[in-house]
Amino acid sequence: MARHWADFQYEIYLNGMSGAVPRLPTDLTRLEELAEHRLGPGPVGYVAGNAGDGSTARANRAALARRRIVPRMLRDVRERDLSVEVLGRTLPAPLALAPVGVLSIMHPDAETAAARAAAAQGVPYVLSSASSTPMEQVAEAMGDAERWFQLYWGKDREVTRSFLGRARAAGFSVLVVTLDTPLLSWRPRDLDQAYLPFLHGVGTANYFTDPAFRAGLAKPVHEDPDAAVLHFLGLFGDPGHTWPDLEFLRAHWDGPIVLKGVLHPDDARLAADAGMDGVVVSNHGGRQVAGSVAAADALPRVAAAAGDRLTVLFDSGIRTGDDVFKALALGAEAVLLGRPYVYGLGLDGEAGVTHVIRCLLAELDLTLALSGHTTPTALTPADLAEDPA
User: Fold this and answer.
1) What contacts 53, CB < 8 A, 6 or more positions away?
2) How many other CB atoms are found less than 10 A from the CB of residue 317?
3) According to the model, what pLDDT value does residue 388 have?
4) What pTM, to 2 d.p., does this model score?
5) Contact status, residue 48 vs residue 57, Cβ threshold 8 Å
6) Which residues of the chain have pLDDT under 70?
7) How far is Cα 306 from Cα 268, in angstroms, rounded to an integer?
């Protein structure tokens, strides 16, 4: 039976009868400012910061804002079903939590708390390679809930092979390969604070627990942590990867593979030709290339190029339920939500992540209904109008 996500608003109003109000804002665009006031400048800067002057992150938001929903009237919207089929699995809503590394800088419960919140709502959790918590520990916290593994595709093939084997053994069903971060971009907020968590061994849990990684060390991690960090930095990214290298990943992963960071339609075609299963239209939330095309502006062309050969997912700039509606109308089959849930985690742990998921999906459910639709799959570009420039 379809879940009634919109009922969350009535739950909030009913709780108000006894004087209880939500611990966090229900307008999720307010979370960043709240995090800025309550959390340390290094961690918040790392999450909120962007490449260069932040122009790409602003463009992401502007591209979504420029599209306006055109509601339709007198349609029966009493019964709605937000569930979607994505990569051969049924999801209760067109949403997954995006991979975000080093979550221990935001809250001590880190990835485990975010994963538990996602599991409880039936939303897939995408675990970052650069997590603060080993993948097996996160998997254990999720039980049999849907979980995907994000790979930072580094220089050491044996470490990559080991990661893929561990992820499969731990029940991660989809591989999400981030292509847009072979190098870290110029990020002034982090540079001004000289703040890079990896240098302190934060975000290295999957590496430091990996037998192939440890085999490359002269001494165990605990005996020479600085050497372990330097080894990690030396293999983390690889600017030399090209399209034929995807054969290695395909040979060592028997589930769906999704390429994250695709913005050009030709790259979508190359992904399909390489036997990939999907793409995430993403500019890393504006964190990698200053002056990049906005993700929402790239989405329609990538979706058209993908046709029925690839599953098209989307991230970068999603903050609200209406943002999700717009991304679906522009051709995405589901979205990945990043920063808002991380702010929720930092402000209120697992409960904060739960709050963010429920707010976003309640707003999407209501936006869908009030615009005359009962399913996400019904949305098309014709449901949007574009503001004149």
Assistant:
1) 188, 290
2) 28
3) 76
4) 0.98
5) no
6) 389
7) 6
d(C-alpha 89, C-alpha 77), whole Å: 25
- Residue 303 near residue 261 (C-beta atoms within 8 A): no
Q: What DSSP string describes 278-312?
A: EEEE--GGGTS-TTPPPHHHHHHHHHHHHTTTSEE
Classify 162 as helix, strand or coil. Answer: helix
Contact status, residue 130 vs residue 152, Cβ threshold 8 Å:
yes
The pLDDT value recorded for residue 389 is 64
Centroid of chain to Cα 366: 23
Helix-helix angle 339-370:8-16, to 10 degrees: 100
Contact between residue 34 and residue 24 where contact means Cβ atoms under 8 Å apart:
yes
Q: Nearest CA to 271 among 319, 229, 303?
A: 303
CA distance 193 to 199: 13
Q: DSSP readout, 53-73?
A: TSHHHHHHHHHHHHEEE----
β partners of residue 385: 68
CA distance between the termini of the chain: 43
Q: Tokens in use for 242?
A: 């090209």
User: No. of H helices and E strands in the chain?
Assistant: 16, 12
Helix ranges restricted to H, 236-294:
246-252, 265-273
- pLDDT per residue as tens digits for the range 218-257: 999 999 999 999 999 999 999 999 999 999 999 999 999 9
Average pLDDT, the chain: 97
Q: How many CB atoms lie within 10 A of CB 337?
A: 24
Give the span between the Cα atoms of 46 and 191, in whole angstroms. 10
Contact 6, 330 (CB under 8 A): no
CB 324: neighbour CB atoms within 10 A?
29
- The reply to whether 284 belongs to the active site is yes
Pick from 343, 283, 320: nearest CA to 114: 343
Active-site residue, from 37, 231, 264, 284: 284
Contacts of 313 (CB under 8 A, 6+ apart): 86, 96, 258, 278, 279, 280, 281, 332, 333, 334, 335, 336
| Angle, helix 339-370 to helix 41-48, in steps of 10 degrees | 50
Q: Is the dihedral of CA 159, 165, 170, 172 positive or negative?
A: positive
